[in-house]
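for the recovery benchmark. tokens below, seq after
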């Protein structure tokens, strides 16, 4: 309480001009003050599209091609400026950021600086909480958003990153301030109101345990994850990329780096649900690839567009994946798997058939999969790979075996393994790989001095918006 009173007293003593944001959002230009706007949008998959994705023959007849994939060994999702940034969420937005999560936030305001002191309290720490801490304006959504349903996601547009961190789980720690230089766009000229060109999309994964992690290979879970990813990836460009779909807005910066003529909208994502939620990395990647490929494809457009809308010049663009591996060696085959699929000109229906067939095989051989035998498998030897934890089945190898020299072309990324060598186990004749993951590379911290205030208003169309209409603000600048 004493700290809260100190913060309130320091905030009240500031000059009104100090409490306004300016054109670059750091409160230094007192002659050109602007207000900031935050948009929170709940996006839902249309019923007809949901029906298509859950039908028996929908994806099995889809002739559209797979979207481009760019695999990144280094970097983080939040580094992907101008792209839709996926946040690995809890269905209750924010997860345990204020309760059962493992951080305690203390916000102190002094000399126009928001200092966020983060203390690790326990081992559990979900990625959604990390993003909500480094982009604290996301916390407004906790007050406004109900639990997400199976076909819903929440997009948060216009936040800034205020801090840098390192580590994950019990190694997570705050580093320093972050000077967010993301471009802003004017959304209301009369009020001189701007919005940061940043879109965070929260999608929640299913959580599994050691006793039931095989359930993610069931058809119902496959379809659930596909619908959830499609919901997140198909956020309308009028929401996610408002800065180049609205002809009336203008940029506050002349050096805008966003390309409004690009053929694809990038989705920055990674190992969704593959940490403490125990998701299978290969399966989750393929589901995300399929979902991104479905966005803007002809079959989906024919379902959701009327005859009049089909000729609309501002039609929804297709998506591309920017996949951040976080230096996880479990991702070492993703890039070569993508090249294999592209080389053989796989379509959406081809990849879905392979996934469907693999999951059928997985369930039929569940006893062998769960056992992770120390001895070599008795059948389907080309599907199995030996790891430090024993023999494990591979979706990528299941797909690759259907194509000439496919297994030979499925090679690991050299930067994702410390030391890798294909070898034949003596007496077994099977491939072996027992490499442990590398350590994640972290960027050098940068300093930042910025602050933000705002009030919340509800728009008539159901979207939630935070705008800074006055200079007085509230006593708590964190929202």
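predicted aa per position
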């Amino acid at each position: 309480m004493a700290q809260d009173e100190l913060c309130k007293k320091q905030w009240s003593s500031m000059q009104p001009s100090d409490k306004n944001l300016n054109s670059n959002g750091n409160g230094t230009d007192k002659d050109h003050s602007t207000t900031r706007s935050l948009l929170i949008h709940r996006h839902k998959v249309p019923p007809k599209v949901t029906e298509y994705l859950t039908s028996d023959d929908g994806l099995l007849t889809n002739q559209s091609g797979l979207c481009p994939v760019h695999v990144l060994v280094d970097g983080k999702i939040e580094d992907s400026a101008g792209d839709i940034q996926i946040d690995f969420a809890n269905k209750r937005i924010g997860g345990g950021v204020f309760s059962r999560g493992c951080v305690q936030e203390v916000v102190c305001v002094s000399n126009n600086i928001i200092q966020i002191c983060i203390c690790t309290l326990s081992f559990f720490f979900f990625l959604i909480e990390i993003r909500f801490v480094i982009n604290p304006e996301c916390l407004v959504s906790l007050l406004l958003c109900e639990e997400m349903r199976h076909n819903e996601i929440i997009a948060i547009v216009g936040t800034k990153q205020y801090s840098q961190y390192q580590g994950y789980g019990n190694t997570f720690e705050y580093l320093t301030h972050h000077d967010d230089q993301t471009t802003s766009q004017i959304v209301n000229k009369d009020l001189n109101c701007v919005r940061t060109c940043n879109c965070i999309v929260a999608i929640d994964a299913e959580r599994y345990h050691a006793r039931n992690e095989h359930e993610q290979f069931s058809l119902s879970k496959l379809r659930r994850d596909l619908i959830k990813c499609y919901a997140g990836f198909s956020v309308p460009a009028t929401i996610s990329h408002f800065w180049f779909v609205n002809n009336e807005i203008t940029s506050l910066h002349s050096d805008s780096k966003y390309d409004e003529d690009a053929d694809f909208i990038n989705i920055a994502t990674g190992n969704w649900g593959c940490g403490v939620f125990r998701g299978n990395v290969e399966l989750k990647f393929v589901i995300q690839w399929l979902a991104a490929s479905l966005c803007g494809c002809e079959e989906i457009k024919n379902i959701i567009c009327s005859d009049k809308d089909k000729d609309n010049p501002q039609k929804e663009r297709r998506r591309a994946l920017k996949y951040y591996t976080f230096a996880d060696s479990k991702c070492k085959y993703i890039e070569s798997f993508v090249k294999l699929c592209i080389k053989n000109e796989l379509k959406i229906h081809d990849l879905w058939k392979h996934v469907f067939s693999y999951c059928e095989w997985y369930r039929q051989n569940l006893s062998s999969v769960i056992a992770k035998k120390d001895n070599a498998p008795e059948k389907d030897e080309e599907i199995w790979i030996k790891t430090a934890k024993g023999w494990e089945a591979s979706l990528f190898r299941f797909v690759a075996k259907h194509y000439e020299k496919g297994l030979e072309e499925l090679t690991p990324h050299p930067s994702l393994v410390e030391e890798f060598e294909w070898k034949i186990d003596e007496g077994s004749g099977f491939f072996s790989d027992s490499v442990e993951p590398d350590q994640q590379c972290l960027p050098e911290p940068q300093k930042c001095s910025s602050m933000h205030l705002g009030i919340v208003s509800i728009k008539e169309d159901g979207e939630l918006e935070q705008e800074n209409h006055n200079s007085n603000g509230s006593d708590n600048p964190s929202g």
